[in-house]
Amino acid sequence: MHHLVIEGWSHRSSPLHARDARAKLGVLLVLLIAISTTSSQLSFYGYALLLAVAIGIARLPLFGLLERAVLLLPFIATFTLITWWSGQPVRALAVFEKSLLSGIAALILVATTPITDLLHGLESLAVPRPLVLVIQFLYRYLFVLSEQAQHMRMAARARGSRFHSAGSAVAVLFARSWERADGIYQAMLARGFAGRFYTVSATHFHVADAAFFCAVSAAVIAIRIAL
Amino acid sequence: MSAVKVRGLRYRYPDGTQALDGVDFDLADGECVALFGANGSGKTTFVLHLNGLLEGEGSVEICGQHLERSTLAKVRTQVGLVFQEADEQLFMPTVLEDVAFGPLNLGLPQPEATARAAKALEQVGMSAVIHKAPYHLSAGEKRRVALAGVLAMEPRILVFDEPTTSLDPPAQRDLVRLLQALPQSKILVTHDTGFASILATRAVFFEHGRVAGEGTVDEMVRRFHWSHV
């Protein structure tokens, strides 16, 4: 399961892992704004180099990360093709590059920040709590869904059939996942869950985090302006 | 004072199934009781009421406190529920975070919650996996971590729903030893009469949402022909 692999990466240690989630979220925001407002090809190379440096510093497996980035391709390709067919090939290429770079940047963030720290960071950056909760539950129930799908696929194979994403199979998958998700929610309530997730690691925004945010943001802005 | 006192408990599921039909039940301090009965006889529905996860008609008293909305939070700290599917109970990214989930919800400061989690993990012999993802553990390890998550809340009553499910014999043996060492009052929902006979001093038999009989484990097994042969 892809999200479990990424979750495993997020608990590793590196200078990038050590940075506060808020600093990394801030940098991601600056980078996304810069990428979305860029049209220069050279700038895209600059951002790509910056992301490659981040992957190196975080000691993330390059091919593993790219493999997960490939999952974004169907979405990226849709918008790229629509733009291409509307007679704007240069713009289509830019859409492709922007989407891919943005996706990889977000992947680096989640691969270097444990989900609880990330959500805690979002909450302390004044992102509405209901939205943070939705993200948390979506993330938690993702593994429920994929696990149920795996079980159904195995059961179908054991009976000499193939698991198709036909309407009925998907309906059964959702019904079973719903049941399972309800069980998880009951277990959470039983242990006093009252609508808020807490983290065991105390979060402190250090001078190093501020320096990281300033330095990387400056680099991003420099690429945006100079190239 | 009884640890648990239930009188006239009735519950009907939204689909119309009468799951509980006037259950009376008592659990003394430090006692261990096994709940037997066929699938669908109401055992699990009954224990879900002890933690306030289901709300039926009748009265439920936990450690002398009547269970109602205003006492729900406190009751949940006193009744630790270990679910049949350990996977459903483990939902945080690491074992430590999962076990500390309950104490943090109780409002304990982070260092204290972490200390409680570490102590509970030590109690169940799982200190070595503290930073592992719960999904990567074996069935027996998951069961122990799920128990640690409940123990970290320091409950007075422990409720186990089919605790031996998917455990191999050595893991079941370890679980028996572990439960024998715990001083809390215990309720075991189980089909495993051998497991129950080691731990429980009393058994209650459920049938069609009612208590059909109670006595020792052996008496219930004989009276209801509750064995494999």
The CATH homologous superfamily of chain B is named P-loop containing nucleotide triphosphate hydrolases
Q: Please give the alpha-carbon distance between the first and last residues of chain B.
A: 39 Å
Helix share of residues of chain B? Answer: 25-40%
Uncertain runs of chain B: none
**What can be said about the biggest beta sheet of chain A?**
none
Largest interface comes to: A-B, 27 and 33 residues
Structural class of chain A: mainly alpha
Mean pLDDT of chain A: 84
According to DSSP, the number of beta strands of chain A is 0
- Helix run count of chain A: 10
Assign a percent range to the helix content of chain A: over 70%
Brief rundown of the structure:
Chain A is mostly helical and 227 residues long. Chain A contains 10 helices and no strands.
Walk me through the topology.
The complex is a heterodimer of chains A (227) and B (229).
Chain A (H helix, E strand, L loop, with lengths): L1 H9 L10 H16 L4 H17 L4 H9 L2 H13 L3 H24 L2 H10 L4 H30 L8 H24 L16 H20 L1
Chain B lengths: L3 E9 L5 E10 L4 E6 L5 H8 L6 E6 L2 E2 L5 H7 E4 L3 H4 L5 H11 L4 H14 L15 H13 L5 E5 L7 H12 L4 E5 L3 H7 L2 E6 L2 E6 L1 H7 L6
Parallel strand pairs in B: 3-8, 3-9, 6-7, 7-8
Antiparallel strand pairs in B: 1-2, 1-4, 4-5, 9-10
Give an overview in words.
The complex is a heterodimer of chains A (227) and B (229). By secondary structure, chain A is mainly alpha-helical. Chain A has two domains: 138 residues, no CATH class; 63 residues, no CATH class. Chain A contains ten helices and no strands. Chain A is globular. Chain B is an alpha/beta fold. Chain B has one domain: Rossmann fold, CATH 3.40.50.300. In chain B, helix 4 packs parallel to helix 6. Chain B is globular and about 45 Å long.
